[in-house]
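Hello support,

Our group uses your service weekly, and this is the first time we've seen a run hang past the timeout. The protein is Peptidoglycan DD-metalloendopeptidase family protein. I'm not sure whether the cause is the sequence or the server load. Input pasted verbatim:
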Amino acid sequence: MIRAFSLGLLMITILCSCSKEPKKASPVEASSVIQPEDTVKALELEVDEFGLPIASVEIEEHTIERNESLYVIFDKLDFDPQEIYSISEKAKKIIDFKKIRPGQRYRTYFKEDSTEALSHLVWQPNSMEYVVFDWKQDSLNIYKAARPLYTKTEVTSGVINNSLYQTISHAGGSQLLAHKLSQVFAWQIDFFSIRKGDSFKTLYEKKYVDDEFYGTGDVLAAQIEHRGELFRAYYFSEDGVEGYYTEEGESVQKALLKAPFEYDHRISSPFSKNRMHPTLNRRRPHNGVDYAAPRGTPVLSTGDGTVTRAGYYGASGNMIRVKHNKTFETSYLHLNGFASGVHAGARVEQGQVIGYVGTTGRSTGPHLHYEVKRNSRAINPLTMDLPSSESIPDSLMDDFKVVRNAFDRQLNQVQQDTAETDRPVITLNDTFISNDAFDVGRTR
Ligand SMILES: [Zn+2]
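Update from on-call engineer: The timeout came from a worker crash unrelated to the input. Re-ran successfully.
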């Protein structure tokens, strides 16, 4: 006790001498210099970003090192094994110890009193979340909290020289932004055919914790000029209507047609994980739907896309495969023949006649085997969940226009800025790590 008391006295002495020294040395600056007394007063009211008081405590920043567990951390802080055990018993109800990784930060707060005891420890698994160990009262209290997330909107634009991803990344956007942008336009633009000279502009959200960038948020509006054609999309959400829409309020997402025929046709064999095969006579999954239809019945592409296969493929017979976007692909089997102009690499539109029903390959009679793949996995075309392709209803059209015009103003702002400041247009000449989805002209 006596030792602690004298230490306290010594500290007061140091504080006093400090406060006087600057005044003597430079009286002119004294008024602008924050005096220690004032600092102490201010600190009493002040808290740090975790809401913890920063007065009368010694704060230390640490980084979790390799192989450091909760046990090692508390061992370093001089807790005995029994105490560490009871801390981890309490902590495991709140935190997942597997999330403790090297490089993460934690902060310790030691009381600047005679006890010099640890009053708080804050572990930060990421820049937003944190866990507080609070010994302020006699018993330990552990709680999770998060620093507030701020969203700012930002416009990124560029002229594509090599790939969308590369251009966005040079313009300060993330790979996630490139991905999100390509998802918005997935049903309109074949990103494999993005080429030099195409341009984009996007208004999107960026999330921050204080001033620290936390992550890319949603795309609010975007435009892409592709082969001289301008595509625009605006995010709109109201009364259960949600999605990206064109200037006219039409959904930019197009669902696939329910069936590859103009008229209804009888389903002769449904999608099944385990069906008795009619000619092989053993159980195997049926990855599509069979439609019984007379030979020569026109078969329609169920969505816009690029033909990736049009030819004879053994048991499949004459087959057409269409890639609609990064996610969806459809196949049409046992065809009698192909419509003119349908060959690998050809662009087809939703509802376009691509071939005719036949019985080529392993088939017992004229029928169409129709298959849908989502992310390379066959799904049931009759029950699949597709993005809504509904337009904005008339009742919400006025609201949509307000949103759209506001987004347009923000997008156009950038153009003006660029012109005024004469900022150079992004041009890229270096080669870059190629990302299939965003590369220019690599498909054919
Ligand atoms: Zn089939």
